[in-house]
């Protein structure tokens, strides 16, 4: 058994506690809340960016667009129906 350097939990700014168990399954249907969970899991070092890309079959560009949308406009921007409004 090897010790991992990553934390087991992360406390988000809104007080929510995020764990690896909260991550969506690899074959998930993407909705805004699941995208936000994955972005936060990477941001708070629960999983690496590379692991997220591999686990969910995401491209660098797709994941980066989620990150940018969340930073610039908040969780609402991750909704597919609002992509055109927030896309540059």
UniProtKB/TrEMBL annotation:
Regions annotated as coiled coil: none
Highest taxon of the lineage: Bacteria
InterPro entries: DUF1153, Trp_repressor/repl_initiator, WH-like_DNA-bd_sf
One Gene Ontology term of the molecular function aspect: sequence-specific DNA binding
Protein name as catalogued: DUF1153 domain-containing protein
Source species: Paracoccus methylarcula
């Amino acid at each position: 058994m090897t010790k991992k350097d990553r934390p087991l939990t992360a406390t988000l700014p809104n007080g929510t506690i995020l764990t690896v168990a909260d991550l969506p399954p690899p074959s998930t249907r993407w909705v805004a809340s699941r995208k936000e969970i994955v972005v936060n899991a990477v941001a708070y070092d629960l999983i690496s960016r590379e692991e997220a890309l591999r686990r969910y079959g995401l491209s660098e560009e797709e994941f980066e667009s989620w990150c940018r949308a969340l930073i610039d406009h908040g969780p609402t921007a991750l909704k597919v129906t609002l992509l055109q409004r927030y896309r540059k």
